[in-house]
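ok so I'm stuck.
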Amino acid sequence: MSRILIVENEDTPRQALKDLLERQAYNVATATSLDAAQALAPQTFDLVVCDLRLVGEDGTQMLALSAPTPVLVMTDHASLRKAVVALKEGAVDCIAKPVDEDDVLATVSRVLSRPAPQEIATPSGVPRGMIGECIAMQRVYERIRKTAPADVTVLVQGESGTGKELVARALHRQSRRTKAPLICVNCAAIPETLIESELFGHEKGAFTGANSARTGLVEAADGGTLFLDEIGELPLDAQARLLRVLQEGEIRRIGSVETRYVDVRLIAATHRDLHSLSRSGEFRLDLYYRLNVMQIELPPLRERDDDILSIAQVLLERACTRHARPGLRLSRAARRDILGYAWPGNVRELENALERGVILAEGHLIHPDDLGLPLERRQEPVSASSEPSAAPEEEDVLDDDLSLEDYFQHFVLEHQAQMSETELAQKLGISRKCLWERRQRLGIPRKKNARRLA
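replied:
not stuck anymore, here's the structure
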């Protein structure tokens, strides 16, 4: 029996839709707000039906809160623009209000009859949602491929913004638990006083304000995968409870004497050194050993020279779609700055910079000032004097007519007879290793008479 969650703040349409679906033997729950919906763990449902015009809230936020559960949005004529945005951001379909019963039932049936999404990979083995083919990321993909079916605990390590949740989702989709829920929890975002209740649940009256019993997120993930992001922020008391889950598969809600059993695969992520934290008493050593069965290390963006522009292009296209500005391109100077910047915030910071560029750009090119990268944090940039001389008009022609790979190939073939590999790399704003990898990928041979370093 399919489980459906309705998120609607108006009593009459909410109850009417609930009655309609229950007559078709669906198991239906309802919520009047995003907070109420989140408390019901929307990731555990088969479908979420959400009104886009909730009082004081943006219904499109339900897409992120429910992932990977499909979301069917409801809208009236006045919010059609918002419906278009929701569909672009991943809503499976849209139904008009007031709802037509036959239309609703047909749409719900069609969405629920779709096969569960399977992991889609490129020929090079890149999991869905992940970008990049540098050597470091190829190692990550290979580790995901080998680890996912093994059903063991995984520790994902990497700086903030490197895509740790994407790794967790890829592991879940490629595992035998793919049809069960994936519950994602950011331990750093939950107040310390509430974290145990959120994770393990509580009984009615267990503490002040506990007016009803509540299922914890660990229990909600039963049969599936629990992803704990920033696990290094978990309080010691909660760590002890989590250790019990890993050792015995047991949980006990706050205020209860009843032991419940769960079958959960745990994926944990952190940007901190858990082993060092365990030595200082901030993290349980026995829990660290339980977590560290398999480890996946994500490289920071600054170490992925060969991927940065590819990632930037994908993020730029998404930003252009969100802001209805098709056809925007990065100028050569903007690309040099992107390659030369250290990116302490990694992919998340790159995404923000490109979004800023799309909003501020005038004309069809995004320039360095539009990106607004902090100058004091840049790595050694490619100087203006080392850039091949080109009039502004010539730069625009190159940007309009050549892709990034075309430009790279054009520049290398034109200048390699006069420059060493080091000079070529400097002028392109990349490392020599990156230059070599791109040569290999594009099939550009080195000239035998190319000038070598003295």
